[in-house]
Write a structure and sequence with these properties.
There is one protein chain. The protein has 2 domains: 3-207, P-loop containing nucleotide triphosphate hydrolases (Rossmann fold); 217-404, P-loop containing nucleotide triphosphate hydrolases (Rossmann fold), CATH 3.40.50.300. 36% of the residues lie in helices and 17% in strands. It is built from 16 helices and 15 strands.
Length: 429
């Protein structure tokens, strides 16, 4: 089935075609017709399956079918982090480039003035983080009285981050007669109960198992002592087949420490976390997207919104305490049916978290050792049941390796690796 069969207008179809997409992803195929019928909707799909286009395309179509005189905000999209807000803003602008609609991104960490000026010039669409939006509402710069469409993206993360009071305040400021959508890679039953107050008889769409990682991601656990984690990471990164690696740290201090150690080992690295200024965060993400650095070290919150074509490996330097965070983390690779590896360093102390994760996903994750690495006596007992393995995917068929075909679903083209053309920026699709 093609996008032409989903009820989208010619200008949106033109934008989709210019991006090189022809076949909708499963979440797009299921959600777009429901949204066009003006139904409230909860969309649950694995990270990297095209959730942004699943809500942006039909809502843009509805806005063009029912235009208003003057540019007044009619679509409000809430996101948990500035990185994700910027990614969504970029995607919406690209998809709506043939429409007479204006989009403004509102987020913290930068000055308010450019965002206020954008609102004054007129905005049909606002993409915002809750905190900065509340600030501008309080100063009278944002008027939500004409909002017809409300989207909560990464809804589980916003609620987990404590944004529920702000979200309730924002929802209370938009008209009750509206269409509300929630999209997320994971959505617990507890969160569904909370969102019941914000949606009316929603259609629930689940693509794949709830909170399950993408099938295209190969998952491995590497037992190691805490003291030897950095050495193991450096040892693994000596393999040049790990050409685009996202490393997750539990803390901001830890992310900086890892980045310094990798830089000292002459491994090009950037760090991304909330203590960095917005300009520093943008530079780090751009350097990773463009292939100037092989490794990006990030915390969970800062990594929301990272959507880079061809991430070959995700490495959990610190194993996540929350299974849902694990799903979000490893969803940064294997996006849109590309192939990727998820590697997790686990200590003895991580045992309960590993047990919770394997219980949630319903299967055991393979334990491995890295041949040629000196684990030391301290870690021998922890690694005694792991099978020897190499971290690269060189034993896979050539066509299955990311460098051989990092194509996004429906794109009909492969992403360039480090040996080919410069890596192009990837939009949140």
């Amino acid at each position: 089935m093609s996008f032409q069969t989903l009820g989208l207008g010619p200008k949106l179809l033109q934008a989709v075609s210019e991006l090189g997409y022809s076949t909708p992803t499963p979440i797009q195929l299921a959600a777009i017709p429901q949204v066009l019928e003006k139904r409230d909707l909860i969309g649950i799909a694995q990270t990297g399956t095209g959730k942004t286009a699943a809500f942006a395309l039909p809502l843009l179509e509805l806005m063009t079918q029912h235009p208003l005189q003057g540019a007044r905000p009619r679509l409000l999209i809430l996101a948990p982090t500035r990185e994700l807000a910027l990614q969504i803003d970029e995607s919406v602008r690209t998809l709506s480039k043939h429409l007479r609609l204006r989009c403004v991104a509102i987020f913290g960490g930068v000055g308010e003035r450019p965002q206020i000026d954008g609102l004054r010039r007129g905005a049909d669409i606002i993409v915002a983080t809750p905190g900065r939006l509340i600030d501008l509402m309080g100063s009278g710069h944002v008027n939500l009285r004409h909002i017809s469409y409300l989207v909560l993206d990464e809804a589980d993360r916003m609620l987990d981050m404590g944004f529920l009071p702000q979200i309730r305040r924002i929802v209370g400021s938009v008209p009750k007669q509206r269409q509300t959508l929630l999209f997320s890679a994971t959505l617990s039953k507890e969160i569904e109960k909370v969102t019941a107050e914000m949606l009316v008889n929603p259609k629930i769409i689940e693509i794949g198992g709830r909170a399950n990682p993408a099938d295209t991601v190969a998952q491995f656990l590497y037992p190691v002592s805490k003291a030897r984690k950095v050495e193991l990471l450096i040892h693994m990164l000596r393999d040049q087949k790990l050409d685009s690696v996202l490393v997750f740290s539990r803390t901001k201090h830890g992310a900086d420490k890892i980045a310094r150690k990798l830089d000292a080992a002459r491994i090009p690295t950037a760090a991304l976390h909330s203590n960095r200024s917005q300009s520093q965060r943008i530079r780090a993400l751009d350097a990773f997207k463009d292939g100037q650095v092989r490794v990006l070290v990030a915390t969970d919150i800062a990594a929301r919104g990272i959507d880079v074509q061809g991430i070959s490996h995700v490495i959990n330097f610190d194993f996540p305490m929350n299974p849902e965070d694990y799903v979000h983390r490893i969803g940064r690779t294997g996006r849109a049916n590309a192939i990727g590896d998820a590697i997790s360093f686990v200590t003895i102390e991580d045992g309960p978290y590993v047990h919770d994760l394997e219980k949630m996903i319903g299967k055991k994750i393979e334990r491995r050792n890295v041949e040629g690495f000196n684990y030391g006596e301290e870690a021998r007992s922890a690694t005694s049941h792991a099978s020897p393995a190499h971290t690269s995917r060189s034993q896979r068929p050539a066509a299955a390796r990311p460098g051989a075909g990092r194509a996004r679903a429906g794109a009909g083209r492969a992403g360039a690796g480090r040996s080919g053309a410069p890596r192009r920026r990837e939009r949140t699709w």
